[in-house]
Amino acid sequence: MVYLSRTDMASNEPATSRIEILQGTLDFIILQALRWGPCHGYGIVQLIRAQSRNLLQVETGSLYPALQRLVKQGAIATEWGMSSTNRRVRTYRLTPRGRKRLAAERSRWEQLSEAIAGLMLPPGAEEA
Amino acid sequence: MSILDWLPWVRERRTRELADEFHAHLEMAEAERIARGETPTEAAANARREFGNFGLVQEVARDEWGRGGRWVEHLVHDVSYGFRMLRRAPAFAAVVILTIALGVGATTAIFSVVNATLLHPLPYPHAEQLVRIEDDLVGLGARDIGMSTPEWNDLRRSGVFDFVSPTWFDDNNLTGLERAQRVGLLIVAPNYFALLGVKPRLGAGFTPGDATPGFNGQAVISDGLWKTAFGSDPDVLGRVVQLDSDSYRIVGVMPPGFQAPGSTREERGTQVWPAFGFAGAPLNQATVESRRSLFAGAIARVKSGLTIDEAQRRIDVLVRQLRQQFPADYPPASDWRIRLVPLKDAIVGNVREPLLFLFGAVILVLLIACANVANLLLTRATGRSRELALRQALGGAPARLVRQLLTESILLSVLGGLAGMLLLVVVKSSLVRLVPDALPRVNEIAIDWGVVLFALAASVVVGAIFGLAPALQIRGLDLIRALKMEGRGATSSRAQNRTRRLLVVAEFALSLVLMSAAGLLVRSFWRLLDAPLGFNPRNVTVLHTRLPYPNDPKEDLYPTAGAEATLVREVMRRSLTLPGVTDVALGSGAAVPLDHPQQDQTLLRVVIENDAVHGDQPLFITGAEVTPEYFRLLDLPLRRGRLLEDFDSDSAPSVAVVNEAMAKMYWPNTEALGKRLRLSPRSTTWTTIVGVVGDARTESLASPAVPQIYASLYQRQGKHLAIFVRGYFETNAIAHGVRDVIQSINAALPVFGVQTLGETVSDSLAVRRLSLILIASFAATALLLAALGIYGVTSYLVAERTQEIGVRLALGAQHGDVIRLVMGQGVRLAVVGASAGVVGALVVARLMSGLLFGVPAADPLTIGGALALLTSIAVAGCYVPARRALRVDPIVTLKT
């Protein structure tokens, strides 16, 4: 299981509630984040947080193993560059195989959310 | 998973990269926080907090690289730690490595021989399809009697084989070069080399389909002959050489190392292969058409896709048909069969048992070495119990510590194994020289990858075995007790002492097995040397010569026994004038005791007159042609009748002398004298038995009485002649003299194989002697190791009980009491072990009964002797530490 935490950035308070998501979803989210172009680990965290409107914060303990896993699977590739402060920075980018996988996961995800939406009765129907 | 995940240095680089990446991550987070208005200190702290546990994140990221790499990382760590531990105790390491080096080195040496002879396929393509064809007369108990041309044709047409080639070993006189030389000849069909799948290094060789009925005049020569007789002449092809006055054109030179696949040393040493069609001159038409056996046997290549078993079944059917078709040639009583023997078995079959026996013995030595090292390691582990307890208390997982210890012991054994291999490489050539050349495939013995792999595997297994005992001690380690033992040198636990005692017991048990095996072999050997020969080999030198036997009878200088007799008498007359020579006799090659060249038909096919039991069926009886002087020269005593005499020439009636075994076997109730025989089924001459001589071990030292016929050399020809000379002087000078005598009579006669009869007798025991030497040295090693083992354990016990002994001495114990106390313990272990070994010794003795002679497998004297020797070794091994115990000063020990 992978945990994503929802943090209130303004108060810097630790997460109070956590969303538990299925294994594999994190990989999908990372691939999705890399769709816009190569990015380093810190950037991926920021991107996911911004795009989820501060709802999802990926923890480093989940992110870095996931990145290693994806590199090994050939979904993403790495490149070393130099940061503005002259530090070695590793960036990740999608490979053709990663793109294919992203497309597959997207359609799977859409099917899943449709199915779950279908399972949810409209409010009010429950009381009836 | 890629192999990269396993390489420690790749993992190290990746770990560094992860750290770099994390630092960059932190830096960026900090920079952003500062941009948002946090103070640098705040920003640094918050970024770190947000990032989480640096080490832990690194660890979980690394987990994605797989467990295998982690395992390798631990291994590297354990090995380097192991090396540090060894450096800290160099003497200990040296002793262990040396012990293992000896054990693994000896085992690997024997394995390299087993590997080359028994395990490796023969050096021909698809060697598994090659067979030797042997014909048996099961009803008469005769094996491998040979084959005839019609039978060869039957086999070729059977559809079972790709190729069938008769092989007929002979020797010939190679003349026309600097000096007449005897060469080994293997007469083969033109398809012989195609059958084996080997091409000459020079020349095209034979045409496999050549259908010339007789000799086609082509010959292929060995690399050795090419080098020695032709000086590696590159233009040797097409040269014509004279073999027994016949001309052959050289059409090929075989590659170096190529040996004819034969079961005898002579055949493997073949130097010339002439091609023969086995269907024409010099064989006459009657011979070619006869189904009575003719040549020694054949080799064949079974069609691919057909197993040897299936081929055998189809040949069995063929044999049944032939027996029905030719009842006169194959009478039911003789029960003729054809056996397909895998060619490798035909070559190495008779050395398999002794080789495997040696291999088993050397493994026992290795196990004893293991037990010794295990004991050493246990002792050391006791000394290290504080370290191990401490590491365990600090959180070292027991499984991890067990692995650490096992790694250390395997490290030791692999180092020992490598040292053993080095040792082997250094002494290899002298070891190979020890191997008698009667052993087949000696030239293939090599330290190849299989051998190296075996040595490494053996070392690792050995390391795991002897490392297990100390490693398992960790489980039972009492942390509190171990940590409490401050300063006071560690004592070992009850379990440790039990293991240590068990190891000594095992060591003595294994040693006893080896000792008794060695004892049985030594006693067998003594018995063989001691067995009355029945003939007197003292001061007798034997030389060999060979009369040419040209394919064209008109070329034959010695076509009859009468013509040969002139030469024989002249050789004797001139040799007797040599200084120091007292007796001279000649005989056919078969007359040389205990050394019959293969090409000599020592088995005569004899028909006995009016034989009610066997009728017209020929009997296989060993026979030789000799001059009358032979009996006196070898001291063969006359029992009845008369010996052969000078007047028994080719114009006189044919006569023979037989030995007592023959007389007893075929005329158990009547007198053999005066009975008549035909010495070959085709012969029309009747030979009368005129005398009976005493039995002699001329066939094998192990068989006292083999039926034997002695015919007169003046009446029956022997192309291969042995000259027996007895003299007073140094035999070398006599040998030279006789050589000159022969070559002064006919310079084209080669003289070869000069040996004293004593050497011949001794050589007939060569393989036995080698196993004896090896087993005896293994037993001696085992003895030494066992002595060291018991010495080590007793010393340890004494050291551990120093205080107790001090107290005992202080309270008035006598020296004798202390010695009894210490020695009683050690010797008891040895005796228990050795007694346990008696069971094993009895089992092994039964397995090796084929190697024994004149000694019962369950020989009380041998086992008793081994027990006594081991016990005295144990007493000696315990006495030294016991004396040391006496030097304990009560004051000193009690004070500490």
Tell me briefly what this model is:
Chain A has 128 residues and is of the alpha+beta class. Helices cover 45% and strands 19% of the residues of chain A. In chain A, a hairpin with a 5-residue loop joins β4 and β5.
Q: Can you walk through the features of this model?
A:
The complex is a heterodimer of chains A (128) and B (896). By secondary structure, chain A is of the alpha+beta class. Chain A has a single domain (2-119), classed as Winged helix-like DNA-binding domain superfamily/Winged helix DNA-binding domain (Arc Repressor Mutant, subunit A, Orthogonal Bundle). Chain A is 45% helix and 19% strand. Chain A has helices at residues 25-33, 41-51, 60-73, 96-119, and strands at 2-5, 18-21, 39-40, 76-82, 88-94. Chain B is of the alpha+beta class and 896 residues long. Chain B has 4 domains: 3-59; 127-348, no CATH class; 493-532 and 765-896, no CATH class; 558-745, no CATH class. Chain B is built from 27 helices and 20 strands. Chain B has a 6-stranded mixed barrel with strand order 2-3-7-4-6-5. In chain B, a hairpin with an 8-residue loop joins strand 16 (676-678) and strand 17. In chain B, helix 1 (8-35) crosses helix 2 (40-51) and helix 17 (494-530) runs antiparallel to helix 23. Chains A and B meet through helix 2, helix 3 and strand 5 of A and helix 1 and helix 3 of B.
Largest sheet of chain A: 3 strands, antiparallel
User: What composes the largest sheet of chain B?
Assistant: 6 strands, mixed, barrel
SSE topology string of chain A? EEHEHHEEH
Domains of chain B, number: 4
- CATH level 3 topology of chain A: Arc Repressor Mutant, subunit A
- Shape, principal axes of CA atoms of chain B: globular
User: Structural class from helices and strands of chain B?
Assistant: alpha+beta
- Specify the oligomeric state: heterodimer
Shape of chain A: globular
Low-confidence stretches of chain A: 1-18
